[in-house]
Specification:
Number of helices: 18
Distance between the termini: 30 Å
Strand content: under 5%
Strand order of the largest sheet: 1-2-4-3
Helix content: 55-70%
Shape: globular
Radius of gyration: 24 Å
Structural class: mainly alpha
Length: 492
């Protein structure tokens, strides 16, 4: 996910309305440098994939797996670096927008500007494919024939990244550009221009949040879950937990991925997506626990929290940078609202990129911490769903004595969710101790649930105040924004 945020930053920089001139401005050098960088990264990915494939076939995987994952992460970072280089050094964005004449076409210029990133990612996936296939065979203990073909792997990764990163940004940009096209001429001067730009940007964000669940399940290879015992069990669980949704969907990954997610802040459109690998690996009780985890994100208002936190953290970050580094605010607001500006040469562009990187790092730390707290709270909801399903008759009688919506955990429910986590890690080839920016590590999540299991044995029915840290950070950042605003550090 951290890599996805870095790619998101590269895409944001690519859709700016006015891109500055880089160090090299000649069209020939611009094209040669840009696409030479893409080729260099693709060749590095091919070399990495070929080396580790041969090495693992001779000596096995475990000894060098950590090095491979490190280099694979470095190559993902390299795709973003290729885009930064093409914009800041080889003037690719300036050439597309100002010289080639594509700047007046809706989304065409944006696609051309970010094309080095798109082709660099495709080259990366094409290059590391042999290593990924070998890794799948050695860790999954299954036939390598079940893995994608090379083209199938590239297309699967492309569809996944388009749905998660490119489609939301392009939809956001399209709504913004349409809003600027139809703007009244009376708003072109004075403060009304800034207010109108902010309103259009907020409207674009709301449209993205509304439409992306529908777009995502159609870009990905998904289909409705067929009627049967499993669907009935999931429907019953959703009803018991008071969860509103549009449909349950199956994500076809050739059983190579074990994952589940919920899309949509509003009840419609909202989809719960289970990968085919997850459906194959987990028992019905464990799938109920996973569904409870996803429902927990909705019932505990995590999705609105994430949106609000991104807005507040970004706003406070812009204010703090303007406080510590005067002159950066106009550059950062240019990125966030896509306002026309004048960045005459590469030095302001470097300052702009540095400020954007600092803002990204700040949001990365804040959002990552809150996300890990929310994952813990959702894990407990997964245990709750499994407790409803695996509870004894005495447990059901205990529930009936409480008012509606009673939340009582059982040791068996917690154990069911722990087993689900362990199977997900095994199928995806994730070490228990591998740390994730948004989720933490499987080992730490299980350790917390095992402590919770002991507390339940001592009479605890439901852990309280799990939500406090996440929402306290949102409140503190909101107060920080207000205080900085009245101190003279507005965002516009």
């Amino acid at each position: 996910m951290a890599m996805q945020l870095l790619l998101l930053l590269a895409i944001f920089l690519s859709v700016l309305p006015n891109l500055p001139v880089g160090l090299l401005v000649h069209p020939v050098w611009s094209a040669a440098g840009t696409w030479g960088s893409v080729f260099a990264l693709s060749f590095s990915a091919w070399s990495t994939g070929a080396f580790f494939t041969q090495h693992w076939n001779r000596r096995g995987v475990p000894a060098s797996l950590r090095w491979y994952r490190f280099l694979r992460g470095a190559l993902y970072i390299g795709t973003a670096v290729v885009q930064f280089i093409s914009l800041g050094i080889f003037s690719w964005g300036h050439w597309v927008r100002q010289i080639s004449g594509f700047g007046d076409n809706l989304l065409l210029d944006e696609l051309l500007v970010m094309s080095p990133l798109l082709f660099a990612l495709a080259g990366l996936w094409w290059g590391i494919y042999p290593a990924e296939k070998t890794l799948y065979y050695h860790l999954g203990h299954r036939s390598a024939s079940e893995f994608w073909t090379r083209m199938g792997y590239v297309l699967f990764q492309a569809r996944t990244h388009v749905a998660m990163l490119f489609a939301p940004l392009l939809l956001y940009v399209a709504v913004q550009e349409l809003g600027f096209v139809i703007q009244p001429e009376s708003l072109l001067e004075g403060d009304w221009w800034g207010i109108y730009s902010m309103v259009i940007s907020i409207l674009a964000l709301l449209i993205v949040l509304l439409l992306m669940p529908w777009v995502l399940v159609r870009i990905w290879d998904t289909e409705p879950m067929p009627p049967g015992e499993l669907r009935n069990l999931l429907v019953e669980t959703a009803k018991r937990l008071g969860f509103c949704y549009t449909d349950f969907r199956i994500w076809h990954t050739q059983k190579n991925i074990a994952n589940a997610l919920v899309t949509g802040i509003l009840p419609w459109p909202r989809y719960v997506v289970f990968s085919d690998g997850l459906l194959q690996a987990l028992s019905p009780e464990e799938l109920v626990a996973v569904l409870g985890h996803e429902i927990g994100h909705v019932r505990r208002w995590h999705l609105p929290l994430y949106v609000a936190l991104c807005v507040v953290a970004t706003t406070s970050g812009v204010q703090l940078l303007a406080w510590c580094w005067p002159g950066q605010k106009q550059y950062l607001m240019t990125m966030l609202l896509r306002l026309p500006t004048e960045l005459p040469d590469w030095l302001p562009w470097v300052e702009f990129g540095t400020g954007a990187a600092m803002l990204w790092s700040y949001v990365w730390v804040v959002f990552g911490y809150v996300s890990r707290q929310c994952e813990r709270e959702a894990d407990v909801y997964g245990c709750l769903a499994a407790s409803y399903l695996t509870g004894t008759n005495d447990y059901r009688d205990d529930i009936s004595e409480h008012s509606g919506g009673a939340r009582i955990l059982t040791k068996q429910g917690i154990r069911t969710f722990i087993e689900a986590l362990e199977k997900v890690a095994e199928v995806n080839g994730l070490p228990r101790t591998q740390w994730s920016w948004r989720h933490g590590s499987i080992a730490r999540r299980i350790a917390y649930l095992e402590k919770l299991e002991q507390r339940v044995a001592q009479g605890l029915t439901w852990p309280r105040w799990l939500w406090l840290r996440s929402w306290a950070i949102l409140v503190l950042l909101s107060l920080c924004v207000i205080w900085l605003y009245y101190s003279g550090l507005g965002i516009y």
